[in-house]
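Class, look over these structure tokens:
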Amino acid sequence: MASKVFIITGASKGLGAAITRYLLSQSHKVVLAARSAEPLEGFKTAHPGQVEYVAGDMTSSEMPDKLTSLAVKSFGKIDGLVVNHGLLVSSRLEKTSIDTFKNLYDVNVFSCLAMVQAALGELRKTKGCVVWISSGAALKPYAGWSAYGSSKAVLNSLSSNLAFEDKDITSITVAPGRVDTDMQVQIRSSGQESMDKAQWDTFQDAFEQGKLLKPEQPGNVIAKFVANPQRDLSGQNLNWNSPELASYQE
């Protein structure tokens, strides 16, 4: 398969790093974004000629255009975009300030939307793909997660709207399940106060029983999809292990 070009946000660790590793292993080229430069520089050093990056906060208004321009300048095009960066706040709705909601939406919604908007012109040229990383919390309520879950529900809606409006672009959301990442550490360490005990216990049990997913499990599925999208799935909100994605699973 000919080498393609992808932008991946939140690429320094966890799911984003797993997606990046898979795409690089298939000889694709990537433009990476994360707040810390060191892991991104590590990818660049290990894969000469395949990696460029911008270290910075995705809520900065300059980031989307910087990433888009860098991809085109360095590699000539953009075939796909994985919108993976995000933030979790655990606090009951009545106790969550509007400013907290606004800050979380800046990260989880507006900066994601800005990134997609910046890349659309190039994605149309390649009939490319956008994968937005969503969550089961977009569809199911979790006590303490009203800000997070509602922000992911917005992404589901934005993705479906994009797919409906722009038939040349494949746009889906993927919920990656419970992945062994920093976010799970955060849930176990600080979620207990605001979460429903029975729900919190399921996260603790999954960790103790070794049932958390390795980042590569959903990561490889997402990477394979963005590199070779099934166009008739555009507009759908899928779990990483949905039957619709069976052909991308190991």
Summary: Strands lie at 5-9, 29-34, 51-55, 80-83, 129-133, 170-175, 237-239.
